[in-house]
Amino acid sequence: AEAAELRARLRAVRHTVLVLSGKGGVGKSTFSALLAHGLAADESKQVALLDIDICGPSIPKMMGLEGEQVHQSGSGWSPVYVEENLGVMSVGFLLSSPDDAVIWRGPKKNGLIKQFLRDVDWGEVDYLIVDTPPGTSDEHLSIVQYLSASHIDGAVIVTTPQEVSLQDVRKEINFCRKVKLPIIGVVENMSGFVCPKCKNESQIFPPTTGGAEKMCQNLNVSLLGKVPLDPQIGRSCDRGQSFLAEAPESPATLSYRNIIQRIQEYCEQHHFQEEKIM
Amino acid sequence: TLAERTNLAGVRHILLVLSGKGGVGKSTISTELALALRNTGKRVGILDVDLCGPSIPRMLRVQDSAVHQCDSGWVPVFVGQDKAIALMSIGFLLERPDDAVVWRGPKKNALIKQFVTDVAWGDLDFLIVDTPPGTSDEHISTVEALRPYQLLGAILVTTPQ
């Protein structure tokens, strides 16, 4: 009956993309926010961004929605809208103060994630983006389990070039294979830094073992793209602005846009294949 | 007392390294702190309770090591230049380094309790406990398990943004 409830609520969601890592601090939330902004640039598309990082919800700040609260209506919880076609949900909106710690064990976190899927009135959604915390634990198992009532197009896995990140990301790739979650591809963030003054490129996080490129080759996974470090990214996130809009000329923006397009193409193809089967 | 008879009886100070945020350098700081303390002649151990993303073994070049049992429990892996820093991590219990530890809270809690009470640390001046990001199962269980002992306090790591 629970699965039926979830299925009903998620029936109007056309595509679902999970943003995962394994490693913390590599840019999952940043990427989720920009993916949502990028997809919502097409005003004919309805985009939903769900933040299931219960302990460290970054999405409200990154989307400029700190301090917003969730409203209830007859049809459920209302997402917080950044644009008319971009709605957001996060535990951040449920806290009385932004510094409140959510000190919950697994089962309570799972309960909230289920509520997010069951009780939020997303309406008709073209793309549901789910931002996750680092790791391969309760939140990840639960979201895959609950979304099996609907479907997940696939996962985008974010990393940085150094081996300490890659070793966690390989685990995440194995997690995806274990739970039969298709991998759309890997994004390598913080991939090089070009000095705005002298234009020299430095590897701030040197890819000592070949970076995401080598890992993707070894594990037969698609490398969606590499995004260079741009201090403006962090600044935009802190200020709740879309980096893509604030720095349209940055090489990082170009990378992000290419990656977003590849994800869109993957989803559209996937949908087409599904329709063919039906 | 029970505390005196346990594996943590010989540990003088326990330090937790926490953040909340991932990727800010907790494991790096834990490692550097351990090495620096060792350099001043202290006896040091590291307990890595990041079960999903254990980084310490690689940072100390022992990612291919295995752990053994003795009468009082698990024998830590000895690392560092003089092989004098004791390290315990789930990394040593994995069959393959890329194996994902896909566990829910209760299973994580059980292992953390074991890591706290069943590792034969011996006599240490400092035990540094590296944690994963967040404020969840690992953190609650680690603090609960360590409470009867000499918990000095926590160091919080962040980045500027």
From TrEMBL, chain A:
Keywords from the named record: 4Fe-4S, ATP-binding, Cytoplasm, Iron, Iron-sulfur, Metal-binding, Nucleotide-binding
Lineage: superkingdom: Eukaryota
Primary location class: cytoplasm
Entries under SUPFAM superfamilies matching the protein: P-loop containing nucleoside triphosphate hydrolases
GO molecular function: 4 iron, 4 sulfur cluster binding; ATP binding; ATP-dependent FeS chaperone activity; metal ion binding
UniProt GO BP: iron-sulfur cluster assembly
Cellular component per GO, a single term: cytosol
Domain AAA+ ATPase: residue ranges: 14-185
Subcellular location: Cytoplasm; Nucleus
PANTHER family: CYTOSOLIC FE-S CLUSTER ASSEMBLY FACTOR NUBP1, NUCLEOTIDE-BINDING PROTEIN NBP35 YEAST -RELATED
HAMAP family found in the cross-reference section: Mrp_NBP35 (MF_02040)
Summary of the function given for this chain in its UniProt record: Component of the cytosolic iron-sulfur (Fe/S) protein assembly (CIA) machinery. Required for maturation of extramitochondrial Fe-S proteins. The NUBP1-NUBP2 heterotetramer forms a Fe-S scaffold complex, mediating the de novo assembly of an Fe-S cluster and its transfer to target apoproteins. Implicated in the regulation of centrosome duplication. Negatively regulates cilium formation and structure.
Designated name of the protein: NUBP1 factor
UniProt source species: Pardalotus punctatus (spotted pardalote)
UniProtKB/TrEMBL annotation, chain B:
UniProt entry tagged with the keyword Calcium: no
Keyword Ribonucleoprotein found: no
Highest taxon listed in the record's lineage: Eukaryota
Pfam families: ParA (PF10609)
Keywords assigned by UniProt, alphabetized: 4Fe-4S, ATP-binding, Iron, Iron-sulfur, Metal-binding, Nucleotide-binding
Any single GO BP term: iron-sulfur cluster assembly
InterPro entries per record: Mrp-like_CS, Mrp/NBP35_ATP-bd, P-loop_NTPase, YlxH/NBP35
SUPFAM superfamilies reported in the protein's UniProt record: P-loop containing nucleoside triphosphate hydrolases (SSF52540)
GO cellular component terms, semicolon-separated: cytosol
Single GO MF annotation: 4 iron, 4 sulfur cluster binding
PANTHER family: CYTOSOLIC FE-S CLUSTER ASSEMBLY FACTOR NUBP2, NUCLEOTIDE-BINDING PROTEIN NBP35 YEAST -RELATED
Protein name (database record): NUBP2 factor
Source organism per UniProt: Pardalotus punctatus (spotted pardalote)
